Amino acid sequence: MDDALIDAFYQQNVIGNKIDGTFTAKACNEVVKELCEKLGMDVNKDRVKNRLKTIKTHFNECFDLFNYGLSGFSWSPITKLWSVKPEVWKSLIEAKPKTRKWRTTPINHYDKLCEMFAKDRATSAAHGDGDHPVSDTTREELLEIIIGVGGGSSPAPAPEPLCPPPPPPPYRFESKRIELAFRVIQKFKKRITCDPNGITKTWVGPDVCNKYMGFSCAMVPDYKVKALAAVNFNRFNFSGPDLTLDGFIDELEDISIFHANSNNFTGTIPKTITKLRYFYELDLSNNNLDGKFPNDVLSATNLTFLDLRFNSFAGLVPPQVFTLDLDVLFINDNNFLQTLPDNLGSTPAIYLTLANNKFVGPIPGSIGQASKTLREVLFLNNFLSGCLPCEIGLLKEATVLDVGHNQLTGPIPHSFACLAKMELLNLAQNQFYGPVPEMVCNIPSLMNFSLSYNYFTEVGPICRKLIEKKVLDVKMNCILNLPMQRSAADCHAFFSKPKYCSNVKSLNWIPCSMDNVHNNSQEPSDRKSATTPRSYDALIPHRL
């Protein structure tokens, strides 16, 4: 219990809940709460205060003897014992037998106790109060014993201070919250063994907010003081044998943003990330994280940006991911293997990339539920199969849809003609077939329409205009009288096998008025260049 108790009170001391040498009632309550809830201890306020009083008494005895006694003793953080040459111990014990017990009695966390109580002890001595610190006479006697005058033993080394003061001038932080972050950063800094850009050279001194590269600060609503608000390690390429997120991201309690693209973090995401109250952006892309999907991010309910691409996560993506209130969800380039969850369309995400994984099965019809928000969605380079759901035509805000390089099949649903804002539509390298709907080629904003490496059989005059303007790519299909098509043998082999879509009637469903969608239809030559899609940047490890 003592270790946990000292640590808890030490944290209260750091954040300023010790006033005029006394811990506040709030501090005691917080310590009791931590010991009960986090460590499962059965304690109350009285027990905690009494135990702290006992610990402080032991500390005072040591401090009075070894500090006021001007001894050459030093406290070892490893053994927790006082150490000095044996002959010095012998002389001291002969003169003061009561000191014998401290040769074998450890005192834990003496360094932290010094920070908490040494100043109080010095003040008490100066005013002549407290628990009777060593008198001047006793101090002189002890000094004589140690240096070999009064005790007759050989001279000992010059005394060393036990609790050295902080380096002058002492660090002064903008707030206690900044001081807490400083301690976490300094501890994390020791785990970085490779820093090719020299970033950590700036992590010196108390000015975390202005001089530390990769960190920025803001006011914390609950405390009304400045605190560390954002971490941006993008492309820093940190590495180390123990470079994990545990003990770092979860201890920066005030952060709202953590971006660490292109580093060498290993392990997974710590469970205690759920306690970060202001956390809304997490980017861990292009690292060495592995294991199952980090389910603990599901409890980070304030997240609006989640980027886990280019890692080695595997297994299943929980359906709850698609109910998070995210604007951006990038999980491409991992090893997820599963059918897409039925609630895929529940996502409020604007940008969704699932590319370069091992997803199988059909695209669920629920995707149409994202009609008001989904703008760009990438399914490319998976193992998706089945026919395209007609509900895709409900995505009235969509500008990018890429299902390239899968095993999808069937005709293009006529509902695609309702994708009025579509600019980039990629169905290449699948097993689609049938005529290319003219009404889809007539989408006014369409700038890049790829149907290559499929089995389409017919294009009309509107689609042919798009081919001429290099908007539509239909190479390697089964279209007569067009160059660069599949061989007749390839096409015959494909069509000789039965084709099946579960709801054929839905392929002709058009959930919009063609007059409203295409009333501003433009000739291909009049179309403006498409805007640069944001989601494709997610397919490059170092981008975004």
From TrEMBL:
Q: Which UniProt keywords apply?
A: Glycoprotein, Leucine-rich repeat, Membrane, Repeat, Secreted, Signal
Query: Where in or outside the cell?
Result: Membrane; Secreted
This entry carries the following GO cellular component terms, namely: extracellular region; membrane
Myb/SANT-like domain spans which residues?
Answer: 1-91
Is this entry keyworded Isomerase?
Answer: no
Which top-level group of life is the source organism from? Eukaryota
Identify this protein by name: Myb/SANT-like domain-containing protein
- The organism's lineage? Eukaryota, Viridiplantae, Streptophyta, Embryophyta, Tracheophyta
